[in-house]
């Protein structure tokens, strides 16, 4: 059965009320009136993919054109760059329609979001790296899709590509012609289309998944909530100064990012209140361990061995538990280090207060935390290459047997 035939079948299931919200078993209930579009059909995003680019990329894969396309796209880096020559005409025509910001994008908010990312990068490295990154391994569909696709066989490269997306999103001029995020988002959208075409051919993936086709609009929303919504909530929990204007700008950068990734505007939350409501439906209920996720988590934490973080593995395990929770730590089998747990839970809040100028008292663990965050940043920033040289390429196969 073709992908498009499956989609028609699944859409019928949605119309009959058989659909679930991101695999929760709960009918989709989030109202499009809370979206940036302000209205919509209300169709479950579980059964919405990216049809035009999916057809294009499926044709490229089946006709063997992907290697040539990937080579042609190497020189396409900055948002203001012309589209690369040497692409098939239909792909060029498609990219012309999507290689731009939505009409509702606000350059002032995007600039403020970039400035916020720069000012709070200390916390963002920790939250995205040890929080969102590890949380992704207990999102069953995401963990299984990553593990059984080509990227799952080389987590260092996979992590580098993920970081490139976040790095370009956070750049000071990431959405401007001299920035790179629009191009990075479009390349990522092509990769998603490739995975949607290839992964259903994997017998290993089919044996463990509850999906016919991966990376629906609902799946992308789940990932957004494990990143943007989670980070905002933790910053507030940690009492990091976060003015309303910064929060609004931070959300706006993610709204534009979701649009560029092919999520329909009727599913993109218009406010943090709407984002929290949506997250409570699509993310919170689905978190659970899988064999694939446990292996990916160990791979990700193992990458830190390449850089001297100045801390023990026990400290790293406890920081993951602190950023997420002990339940996730237990799911992933992260061994306890109670001395490190006590240090983190007592000294990290004091570290934040001192860094934010809210306390003149230097915490005893200041140097440890400062060096840890610096080393963590270097792990992401360097990792043997540069974010600007990491190649985001359309896959041609799944995880090797």
From TrEMBL:
Keywords, ordered alphabetically: Oxidoreductase
Keyword Oxidoreductase: yes
Domain of life: Bacteria
E.C. no: 1.-.-.-
This protein's name: Oxygenase MpaB family protein
Species of provenance: Streptomyces citrinus
């Amino acid at each position: 059965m073709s992908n498009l035939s499956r989609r028609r079948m699944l859409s019928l299931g949605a119309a009959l009320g058989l659909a679930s919200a991101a695999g929760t078993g709960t009918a989709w209930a989030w109202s499009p009136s809370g979206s940036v579009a302000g209205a919509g059909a209300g169709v479950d995003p579980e059964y919405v993919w990216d049809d035009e680019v999916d057809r294009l990329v499926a044709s490229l894969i089946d006709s063997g054109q992907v290697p040539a396309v990937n080579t042609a796209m190497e020189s396409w880096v900055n948002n203001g760059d012309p589209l690369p020559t040497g692409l098939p005409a239909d792909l060029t025509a498609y990219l012309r329609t999507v290689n731009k910001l939505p009409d509702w994008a606000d350059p002032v908010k995007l600039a403020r979001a970039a400035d916020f990312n720069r000012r709070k990068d200390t916390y963002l490295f920790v939250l995205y790296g040890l929080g969102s990154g590890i949380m992704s391994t207990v999102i069953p569909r995401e963990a299984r899709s990553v593990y059984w696709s080509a990227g799952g066989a080389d987590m260092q490269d996979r992590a580098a590509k993920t970081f490139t997306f976040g790095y370009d999103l956070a750049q000071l001029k990431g959405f401007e012609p001299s920035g790179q995020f629009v191009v990075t988002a479009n390349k990522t959208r092509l990769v998603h289309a490739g995975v949607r075409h290839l992964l259903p051919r994997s017998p290993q993936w089919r044996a463990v998944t509850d999906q016919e086709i991966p990376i629906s609009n609902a799946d992308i929303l789940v990932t957004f909530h494990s990143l943007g919504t989670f980070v905002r909530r933790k910053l507030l929990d940690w009492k990091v100064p976060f003015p309303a204007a910064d929060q609004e700008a931070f959300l706006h950068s993610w709204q534009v990012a979701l649009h560029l990734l092919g999520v329909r505007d009727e599913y993109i939350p218009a406010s943090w209140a709407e984002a929290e409501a949506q997250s409570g439906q699509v993310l919170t209920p689905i978190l659970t361990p899988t064999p694939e996720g446990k292996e990916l988590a160990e791979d990700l934490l193992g990458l830190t061995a390449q850089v001297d973080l100045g801390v023990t593995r026990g400290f790293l395990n406890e920081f993951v538990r602190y950023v997420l929770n002990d339940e996730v730590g237990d799911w992933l089998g992260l061994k306890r280090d109670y001395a490190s747990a006590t240090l983190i839970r007592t000294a990290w809040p004091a570290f934040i207060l001192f860094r934010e100028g809210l306390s003149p008292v230097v915490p005893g663990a200041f140097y440890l935390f400062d060096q840890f965050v610096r080393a963590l940043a270097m792990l992401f920033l360097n990792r043997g290459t540069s974010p600007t040289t990491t190649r985001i390429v359309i896959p041609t196969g799944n995880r090797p047997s």
